[in-house]
Amino acid sequence: MATPAPSPTGSRLFGSLFELRRDSLGVLLSGMRECGDVVRFVAGPPGLRLTLHGVFSAEGAQRVLATDAANFRKDSKTYVEVRASFGDGLFTSQDDVYRRQRRLIQPLFTRRRVDQYADAMREEVTTLLRRWRDRTDRVVDLRDESTRLTLRVVARILFGADVEEAVGTMRHSFPIISGSVARRTVSPITLPRSWDRRYVTAHRRVHELCDRIIAERAADGRDEGDDLLGLLARVRDETGDRLAASEVRDQVLIFLLAGHETTATALTFALHLMAHHRDVQARARDEVDRVLGGRPPGAADLDRLTYTTWVLKEAMRLYPPVPSIVRRAVDETEIGGYRIPAGSDVFVSPWVTHRHPAYWPDPERFDPERFRPEEEAGRPRYAWFPFGRGPRACIGEHFSMLEAVQALAVVLQEFELEGVDSDVSLDQGMTLHATSPVRCRLSPR
């Protein structure tokens, strides 16, 4: 008979509550090292306790995300909070609603369709670098600059000409909303959202902006455009089914959130790591110069920039944009010899699995060579899953990879990078993000 999963040493009264609030990423990693591949985390006093089961092996992640995906649903408190803030879009929907949305939206994210956005992505990177060249101070914060870039890219591809207003509203409002979601997810006591006036204001502004843009576009016929909002507004399946205006808004909100925060994190740390590993930077630059010969990168170059792609993948191994993926078990099951009770919140963690010594020797070392084809062939498929895997894998994986690799290539063409901040403070909210500056010094080539 399966036994309960072990728990890390913590307070008898509060469990791991205070440690999780202070350093959740460190607690997850130490929990794996202390207890193994299945760990039961308890947080809060008796009567108000949260219990989470962490599953850290590649085999366990495959069980949760793919093999037994039907038993692990998006019913956890995390998804309740995300739905309340961002609607029931492709990221949060389930069952028939999800299958319908995926059927309608998947054609908009084929590789061929996404490749058509490459020019717009590159133009935004070029605009960013023009601003860098005009600076008198050559030290930039990669966290802020990457967020600005990726938000402009996704807003432009969604809204076309409505970029400026959208970017301003989202830059101000999204951190407030995301912070509230993250806090409420781990709090034993959930207060009414209406008590948080900053959240209420930010939430209203974001929804009003999206609703107004959608309504104006429909009124003046601009929903016939080729930007993503126009495509969402007129997408049909073979039966003639289409998304309602409220569903379009929910998809837009999720794309804005997921489409900029995750790529910004990947890009921030790929640049940060190259700035502190000049040999890796030099090799990636040599590849960019050889493959592109001084011309701008395009979608067709993605498969040829192999080492640059390895750099990005290794950055996402060490700094996965979504450090934990939460589900809720429908029926009691067993993973790794331990019992997972029905109704349990279960999470897999790229942050931990990407550092598992069974798959990654010297796991804290930055080494893009880990992604040579022969190296990848020797690892379990779920040893690396920054975009999730299984039937709910991220629909925007190619979008993110294309945007980030192009950005890295253009930066390497224009600048040499020297790291300024060695130690970066991190926080696990809806996504992984730096809570301290991630600065580097630019030297024009």
Briefly say what this structure is.
InterPro entries: Cyt_P450, Cyt_P450_CS, Cyt_P450_E_grp-I, Cyt_P450_sf, Cytochrome_P450_Monoox. This protein has 445 residues and is of the alpha+beta class.
Distance between the termini: 64 Å
Structural class: alpha+beta
| Biggest sheet: strand arrangement | 2-3-9-6-4
Low-confidence stretches: none
Mean pLDDT: 91
Strand proportion, as a percent range, falls in 5-15%
Continuous helix count: 16
Mind telling me the C-alpha Rg?
22 Å
User: What is the overall silhouette?
Assistant: globular
Range of helix content:
40-55%
Q: H/E series, N to C?
A: EHEEHEHHHHEHHHHHHHEEEEHHHEEEE
Q: Report the sheet with the most strands, covering strand number, pairing sense and barrel closure.
A: 5 strands, mixed
Q: How many β-strand stretches?
A: 13
Organism: Saccharothrix longispora
Protein name: Cytochrome P450
InterPro entries: Cyt_P450, Cyt_P450_CS, Cyt_P450_E_grp-I, Cyt_P450_sf, Cytochrome_P450_Monoox
Family: Belongs to the cytochrome P450 family.
3D architecture notes:
By secondary structure, the chain is α+β, with helices and mostly antiparallel strands. Helix content is 52%, strand content 11%. The chain is built from 16 helices and 13 strands. The strands form four sheets. It has a five-stranded mixed sheet, sandwiched between helices. A hairpin with a 3-residue loop joins strand 11 (426-428) and strand 12 (432-434). It is globular and about 65 Å long.
